[in-house]
Amino acid sequence: MAARADRYIPRIVDHELDRLLTGLPAIALEGAKGVGKTATATRRASRVVRLDVDQERIAFAAAPFDLKPEGTLLIDEWQRFPESWDRVRRAVDGGAPAGSFLLTGSSAPRGTTVHSGAGRLVVRRLRPLSLAERGLGEPAVSLKGLIDGEQPRVDARTGVGLPDYVDEIFSSGFPAVRALPTDFRADALDGYLAHAVEREFAEQGAAVRRPATLRAWLRAYAAATATPASYTTILDAATAGVPEKPSRTTTTLYRDVLARSFLLDPVEAWTPAFNPLQRLAQSPKHYLADPALAARLLQLSPQAVLTGTDRPRPALGPGSLLGPLFEHLVAQSVLAYAQAAGAHVGHLRQRDGRHEVDLIVEKGRAVVAIEVKLAATVADDDVVHLAWLRHRLGGDLADAIVVTTGQLAYRRPDGIAVVPAALLGP
User: Fold this and answer.
1) Cβ pair 412, 386 in contact under 8 A
2) What is the pLDDT of residues 308-329, one digit of tens each?
3) Which domain holds residue 240?
4) What's the pLDDT band for 151 if we cut at 50, 70, 90?
5) Do 78 and 178 sit in the same domain of this protein?
6) Is residue 5 in some structural domain?
7) CB neighbours of 39 closer than 8 A, spacing ≥ 6?
8) How far is the C-alpha of 203 from the C-alpha of 196, rounded, in Å?
9) Which candidate among 34, 165, 377, 410 keeps its CA 20 to 30 Å from the CA of 262?
C-alpha cells in the first residue's frame, strides 16, 4: 500500500510527544534513518536547526552557548554536533520551560557520553510504521487495554489476509520507501543498506577493513530473524568456508555500530521483576530495524516466501523465512504499541527450550503474553506455552493472546484471545 511522499502519516508517538511537551523541557526522538523523525518533530517546532547541513551546523556551533529558544527548538541530527546535547542539558538545568527543545538523532557517536540526568532529557524511540499506522483498517483490540487488565471484548473481523501481510513485509515501514512505486522499493532498500555499510561506520569513526565480511554478517543476522541464535552461530553462518574468520572484536564492532545506528532492534530476554521464573535463557531475539531489510538482504521475493520456495537459512536451520518475517512485522508493531502504553517488551525462553513465548509485554506487575502464529486458525497445541505461563504467573498475567494471519478476533473458551495482526493496535 503506497503512500504519497508529501503526505504526513500520523504516528502513534504523536500523542506521546504532544503530552510530554506540555510538561517537560526537552525530549529526544531517536531511531534509524528514514523512519520519519524529522517529519514528526518538525510539526511541533517553532524553529529547526539541521545539523546535517554544514552551514547550519557551523553557525550553531559558533552561537552563544546558552540556549533560550522562543517556542520549541528542534535540533535535527544532534549527533553531528555532540556538544548540542550538553547545551540542551545545561539549558534545562538553567530552568528552560516545558516544550523548549526537541532533539532527533539516528545514531549515538562512538565514544560520546550522553548525560541525560534525572528528568533532563526524556528519550522516545520512533520505529518504522507499525501495522496500525499503515492504514490497513481500524484496530479493534488495544494492547494498552490488555496490559491494563481491562479484559476487553475481542470480537471483530478484518479483510486482511496472508498475502496482504507479505505485501506489508516487502513494502517496508519506512515512509519514503513505501511512497515509491513497487518496482523501485528494492533499489531504495539496497541503497539504504549500502549507506549502512559504506557510510555509517565511517561517520561513527569505525573502520571496516572487509566490507564483504560485514555484508555477509548482516545477511546471516537477517537469516537469524526472530531467533535467539548465538552470535557465534551467526558468525559461523556468515563465514562458512572462509579460512580466516574475523575476530570477536571485529564482529562486536559490527554489532555495536549497527545497534547505535538503530539498524538492529533486538528484543531482549525477559527477566521477571515480581514473579521469578527458573532457568530462563538470556539471549536476545534478533530483529533488524524493518523486516523489509531482512528480506532484501536475503534476496527474497513475495512469491518465493508465499510458495515456500525461498532458500532455507544457512547453518541456522531449515524452513521458510515467512514465519520469522511475519513475527518480525508483529514485533515491530508491538514495540511501538508498548511504548505508547508505558510498557516494556521482552521474550521468554527456558534454557532447555521446553517453554517459550514470542513476546512478553510488561508494565509494573502486569504481563501480556503474545504468541505469533503464521496461521489463520489456532489449535489447543498453539496455546500450550501461554497456558503454562498463566499457571506460573497467576494474577500477574493480565492477558494472553495469539496473533494470527486470520480474519476473526475472538476469545477461546480458555480465555486466551485470538487476534489477527491487523486488528491489534495501541
Assistant:
1) no
2) 877 655 555 556 899 999 999 9
3) 131-425
4) confident
5) no
6) no
7) 8, 175
8) 10
9) 165
Q: How far apart are CA 261 and CA 135, in angstroms?
A: 27
Distances (CA, A) of 386 to 171, 190, 329: 32, 39, 21
Chain position carrying cell 561517520 = 203
Q: Tell me whether residue 294 is in a domain.
A: yes
One-letter identity of residue 265 = D
Grid cell of 342 as nine digits: 508505558
* Alpha-carbon span 416 to 312, nearest angstrom: 32
Cα–Cα distance list, 273 to 181, 228, 277, 354, 389 (Å): 47, 21, 10, 21, 15
Residue 361 grid coordinates: 509485554
Contacts of 278 (CB under 8 A, 6+ apart): none
Say if residue 97 is in the same domain as residue 241: no
In a domain, 7, yes or no: no
DSSP-assigned letter for residue 10: P
Quote the CA–CA distance of 133 and 69 in Å, as a whole number.
32
- Alpha helix ranges (H) inside 44-128: 54-62, 83-93
**In the numeric block, which cell numbers belong to residue 66?**
546558552
Of 75-79, 104-108, 154-158, 185-189, which gets the smallest average pLDDT? 104-108
- Distance from C-alpha of 351 to C-alpha of 281, rounded to nearest angstrom: 5
Q: Mean pLDDT for the chain?
A: 91
CA distance linking residue 373 with residue 417, whole number of Å: 13
What is the pTM (predicted TM-score) of this model?
0.93
Same domain, 73 and 172: no
Q: What is the CATH number of the domain that holds 101?
A: 3.40.50.300
The answer to whether the CB of 147 falls within 8 A of the CB of 363 is yes
Shared-domain flag, residues 357 and 232: yes
Looking at the 3D structure of the chain, how many domains does it have?
2
Measured in whole angstroms, the distance separating CA 124 from the mean position of its chain's CA atoms is 12
Give the separation between CA 391 and CA 227, rounded to whole angstroms.
Answer: 25
- Choose the final residue of a domain: 94, 125, 156: 125
Residue 79 within a domain: yes
Asked whether 284 and 259 are in contact (CB, 8 A), the reply is: no
pLDDT at 4 (0 to 100):
55
On whether the CB atoms of residues 245 and 235 are closer than 8 A, the answer is yes
Whether 73 and 46 have beta carbons less than 8 Å apart is answered as: yes
Same structural domain, 40 and 185? no
Q: What share of the chain is helix, strand, coil (3-state, %, to 5)?
A: 40, 15, 45
Cα-to-chain-centroid distance, residue 65: 35
For residue 254, the 8-state DSSP code is H
